[in-house]
C-alpha cells in the first residue's frame, strides 16, 4: 500500500511509519514538527508541512496515489486543552476536516483516526467497551469525539470509510531501540518514572494513595506502542479490502497501578529513586481499563507485549539512550 502518515514524526506516528515500512508498504510522512522530531522519521519520504495547508495537501494527493491516510497529528495535552480550547478545536477538528476534504477531492476513501479514551469522560463501568456512553469532560476529549462524529457523517454522505481507535495509555518503545517516547513537557507516567530512575528527575510524585483499588493508587491500562501500531495497520488493511467503518477501544485488557509501575521500574532498572506522595488530582478516576474484545474478534488483533515488565524494559532501553537523542532534540 501507499500510505500517508500525518504526524509521523511524533511518538506514535514514527513507530507506525517504521512498522508500515518493515511490512513492505510505501510511506510518506507529513509533519509540521511542532511536537515531532525530524530524526524520528527513519523510513520513507518526509514532507514538512501542516494539514491545515489545503494547497500542500492538494499537491501531495496529486503527486501520490495513496491507498489510505493515517492521522496522528492531533494535540493531546488535556490540561493545555482546558487553557487553550481554541487551539485544540482548530487543529484537532478544523484541520482534520481540511484533510478529509482534500482526501475526498482526490478519491481517497480509507482513513485511520487516532482517537482516545478521553471521549468517554468519567467511566460509568470498567472495563470500558464500545457501548460505554461518550461524555468527554475536557476540550481534548470533545475535539476527538467531534472528529468521530464527522467521520460518521462523511461515511454516510460521501462514502469515506474510517477506523477510529480509542486507546488509553500508549507506552513502551521500539523493541529494537531505534525509536521511543520524547515529549516536552513529558506527562506520561512510565517515562517520568524512568527519568527518576536514570537521574534526570529528582523524584516521582504519586497523586493519591487512597483510591478504591488493590493498593490505593490509580489503575491504568498501558498498551505497548508496537501493539497499538499493529492495530492501526489491521484497520487500514480492513478498509482497503472494502471493510466498513468502525470504532474500537484498544488497550492491554488489564490494568496496572501506579505503585506496580514504580515497583517494576525499580526491578527492571536496578535503581532506587525517591517517591513523593501528593494529594489526589481532580478528575482522576480510580480505574481506567479497556475492553478490546471487539477489536480482537473483528480484526484479529493479538497484542504481543502485554506484560508490564516488557513495556518498561523497552522504554528503559530508550531512556538510557538519552545522551544520544537528548542532544539532538
Q: Which CATH class of the largest domain is shown? A: Alpha Beta
By CATH, the topology of the largest domain is Rossmann fold
Q: What order do the strands of the largest sheet run in, or round the barrel if closed? A: 3-2-1-4-5-6-11
CATH architecture of the largest domain: 3-Layer(aba) Sandwich
Oligomerization: single chain
Radius of gyration: 19 Å
The profile of the biggest β sheet is: 7 strands, parallel
Estimate the global geometry from the Cα principal axes: globular
Query: End-to-end span in angstroms?
Result: 31 Å
Helix-strand makeup class: alpha/beta
Low-confidence stretches: none
CATH H-level superfamily of the largest domain: NAD(P)-binding Rossmann-like Domain
Note the beta-strand portion.
15-25%
Number of structural units classed as domains: 2
- The secondary-structure element order is EHEEHEHHEHEEHEEEHEEHEEHHH
pLDDT averaged over residues: 95
Percent range for helical residues?
25-40%
Number of E-type strands: 14
Individual helix count: 11
Give the topology.
Elements: E1 2-6, H1 11-22, E2 26-31, E3 45-48, H2 54-63, E4 68-71, H3 78-83, H4 85-105, E5 110-116, H5 139-158, E6 161-167, E7 169-171, H6 189-198, E8 203-207, E9 219-220, E10 222-224, H7 225-240, E11 246-250, E12 256-257, H8 258-269, E13 274-278, E14 287-288, H9 293-299, H10 308-319, H11 322-325
Parallel strand pairs: 1-2, 1-4, 2-3, 4-5, 5-6, 6-11, 7-10, 8-13, 9-14
Antiparallel strand pairs: 9-12
Helix pairs in contact: 1-7, 2-4, 4-5, 6-8, 6-10, 8-10
Amino acid at each position: 500500500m501507499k500510505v500517508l502518515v500525518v504526524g509521523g514524526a511524533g511518538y506514535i506516528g514514527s513507530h507506525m511509519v517504521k512498522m508500515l515500512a518493515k511490512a513492505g508498504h510505501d510511506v510518506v510522512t507529513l509533519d509540521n514538527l511542532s511536537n515531532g522530531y525530524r530524526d524520528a522519521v527513519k523510513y520513507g519520504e518526509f514532507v514538512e508541512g501542516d494539514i491545515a495547508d489545503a494547497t500542500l495537501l492538494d499537491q501531495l494527493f496529486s503527486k501520490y496515489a495513496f491507498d489510505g491516510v493515517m492521522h496522528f497529528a492531533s494535540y493531546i495535552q488535556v490540561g493545555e486543552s482546558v487553557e487553550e480550547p481554541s487551539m485544540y478545536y482548530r487543529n484537532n477538528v478544523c484541520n482534520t476536516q481540511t484533510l478529509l476534504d482534500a482526501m475526498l477531492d482526490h478519491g481517497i476513501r480509507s482513513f485511520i483516526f487516532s482517537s482516545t479514551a478521553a471521549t468517554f469522560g468519567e467511566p460509568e463501568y470498567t472495563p470500558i467497551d464500545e457501548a460505554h456512553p461518550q461524555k468527554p469532560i475536557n476540550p481534548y476529549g470533545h475535539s476527538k469525539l467531534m472528529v468521530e462524529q464527522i467521520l460518521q457523517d462523511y461515511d454516510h454522505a460521501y462514502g469515506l470509510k474510517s477506523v477510529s481507535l480509542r486507546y488509553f495509555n500508549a507506552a513502551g518503545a521500539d523493541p529494537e531501540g531505534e525509536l521511543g517516547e520524547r515529549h516536552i513537557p513529558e506527562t506520561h507516567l512510565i517515562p517520568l518514572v524512568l527519568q527518576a530512575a536514570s537521574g534526570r528527575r529528582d523524584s516521582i510524585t504519586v497523586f493519591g494513595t487512597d483510591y478504591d483499588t488493590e493498593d490505593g493508587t490509580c489503575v491504568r491500562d498501558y498498551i505497548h506502542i508496537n501493539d497499538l501500531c499493529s492495530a492501526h495497520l489491521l484497520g487500514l488493511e480492513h478498509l482497503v479490502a472494502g471493510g466498513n467503518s468502525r470504532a474500537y477501544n484498544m488497550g492491554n485488557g488489564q490494568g496496572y497501578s501506579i505503585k506496580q509501575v514504580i515497583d517494576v521500574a525499580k526491578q527492571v532498572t536496578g535503581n532506587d529513586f525517591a517517591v513523593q506522595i501528593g494529594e489526589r488530582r481532580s478528575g482522576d478516576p480510580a480505574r481506567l481499563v479497556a475492553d478490546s474484545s471487539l477489536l480482537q474478534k473483528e480484526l484479529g488483533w493479538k497484542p504481543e507485549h502485554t506484560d508490564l515488565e516488557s513495556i518498561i524494559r523497552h522504554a528503559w532501553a530508550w531512556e538510557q539512550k538519552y545522551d544520544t537523542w537528548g542532544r539532538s532534540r
